[in-house]
Amino acid sequence: MAELGFEVIGVDVDPQKVAILQRGEVPFYEPGLDEVLASNIAAGRLRFTTSIEEAAAFADIHFTCVGTPQLAGAQRADMTQVFGSIEALAPHLRPGALVVGKSTVPVGTANVIAERLAKIAAPGVEVAWNPEFLREGFAVEDTLRPDRLVVGVRSQRAEDLLREVYAPLLAIGTPFLVTDFPTAELVKVAANSFLATKISFINAMAEVCEAAGADVAQLAEAIGYDPRIGHRFLSAGVGFGGGCLPKDIRAFMARAGEIGAEEALTFLREVDQINLRRRSHTVDLALATLGGSFAGKGVTVLGAAFKPNSDDVRDSPALDIAVSIDNAGARVKVHDPKALANAARVYPNMTYEQDVMSALKGADLIIHVTEWTEYRELDPQEVAKVVNSRHIIDGRNTLDPAAWRKAGFTYRALGRPNA
Ligand code: UDX
After folding, report:
1. What atom in ligand 1 is closest to the CA of residue 244?
2. pTM (2 decimals)?
3. Fewer C-beta neighbours within 10 Å, C or N terminus of the chain?
4. Which atom of ligand 1 is nearest to the CA of 245?
5. Which pLDDT belongs to residue 419?
């Protein structure tokens, strides 16, 4: 918003986070975000506070961008932050303020918030729902050049305000879709469910390829030339993770059950299962590669983040696989260019290496699970000199099998038994 020219206050309940942001630093890894943050602070358009009163007194439009993680021990979303932020903001809002929800929520949430604000907020306070579609690693680009903007509104005034907010993006031709509340809420979970389904579809094909002796990478390339299918999100491997796709499909199923549409989404259970099976299959493949026992074997796991260009380890397939193999008795060393601090916070007892060659030293098996460019650029001949035994499993199908084999490695990949 500051980059679009608005004056912005960012509010967070965590004083430490606010202090870091106010210094112009980003408390997580997101390419390009630090430059945008620093330049807008320097230009005087952006500042941060823990005071919700200050923000309420200052702004005409309030974007609530809090998380909706999976509720511990359940499949549905934990809505504490959404309702907590609304309750905190409501009493301080100026008459006519617009509250715009960005969070991924169970359908029906915007309506609940609107009813609540009608009771406890100043007259004329309105709600709109404007889901966020950004990808980690491309957050700046996806925000400043989004594929589309979706706004769920109940009045012309709310629509007009959001058209004004997004005027620079509308000027560059961004599609702007105006919907009701439930449609806007559903667009987000439907989009993420479709993406998860596409990944699990190709991973199901990987399972079939493994049984049939076929090659899923070639299969994906071949079907992707059909423009109705397309090549994107058709990479087979250890599957999807992160703070969105896994918990969103689970919360969507849970919500569908609550509103009487459970049957419509039972296929997402399969999507989730196929995805999780890829992780256990990778562990099985590692075990088979090491001759049936992990005991005392050195296993180097390349990657901890759920995807490259991120330091996010939430529901990371990479870390999940590393932990399973570590628990099974191997001496696991994990490397990641950015995510080790976060990984160590979640699993403090595993061994982490900052330097990739040190991580590879003495390995009996290498497992490549997050496709950072750095791993594609490794020289297999150099790696061959430091490992104990030459075995590699490519969990992302992005390494060059010929180069690794030439250096004496056995190369195994998911869905490509003969690659
Ligand atoms: C996702 C959505 O893409 C985004 O629109 C939404 O706003 C938030 O959720 P993100 O979680 O950042 O974004 O990651 P994404 O790029 O979608 O990747 C999700 C997972 O799928 C990663 O673990 C990735 O490695 C995996 N993936 C992706 C595959 O396994 N195969 C693919 O072909 C593509």
Report:
1. 9
2. 0.96
3. N
4. 9
5. 82
Residue 300 structural domain: 277-413
Contacts of residue 219, Cβ cutoff 8 Å, sequence gap at least 6: 205, 209
Distances (CA, A) of 301 to 201, 326, 359, 361: 25, 10, 8, 12
- CB 235 less than 6 A from any atom of ligand 1: yes
Using the mean position of ligand 1's atoms as its centre, give its distance from the Cα of residue 298 in Å.
30
CA distance 188 to 207: 29
- Give residue 397's pLDDT band: very low, low, confident or very high (50, 70, 90): very high
What is the average per-residue pLDDT within 95-118?
98
* Ligand 1 contact via 102 beta carbon (within 6 Å): no
Check if the beta carbon of residue 367 is closer than 8 Å to that of residue 286: yes
Angle ∠(109,103,2) on CA atoms, nearest 5: 135
Domain for residue 334, yes or no?
yes
Our answer on whether the CB atom of 131 is closer than 6 Å to any ligand 1 atom is no
The answer, yes or no, to whether any atom of ligand 1 lies below 6 A from the CB of 94, is: no
Is 244 an annotated catalytic residue?
A: yes
Residues making up the chain, counted from first to last = 419
Residue at 236 is within a domain: no
Q: Smallest Cα–Cα separation from 346: which of 373, 300, 306, 302? A: 306
**Ligand 1 centroid to 276 CA: how many Å?**
15
Q: Ligand 1, atom 19: nearest CA belongs to which residue?
A: 240
135 Cα to the center of ligand 1, angstroms = 7
CATH number at residue 374: 3.40.50.720
Decide if 309 is inside a domain: yes
Ligand 1 atom closest to Cα of 308?
25
Phi, psi values for residue 360, rounded to 5°: -85, -20
Give the pLDDT confidence of 110-146 residue by residue, as tens digits: 999 999 999 999 999 999 999 999 999 999 999 999 9
**CB-based burial of residue 41 (10 Å sphere; 0-12 exposed, 13-18 middle, 19+ buried)?**
middle
CA 289 to centroid of ligand 1, rounded, Å: 29
Residue 62 lies in a domain: no
Distance CA 31, CA 217 (A): 28
Number of domains, the chain: 1
CA of 359 from ligand 1 middle (Å) equals 27
> Residue 135, exposed/middle/buried by CB under 10 A (0-12, 13-18, 19+)?
middle
**Tokens 């667009």 label which residue?**
187
| Residue 334 CB partners (closer than 8 Å, separation 6+) | 300, 301, 303, 304, 319, 322, 340, 343, 350, 351, 352, 353, 359
Q: Report percent pLDDT > 70 for the chain.
A: 100
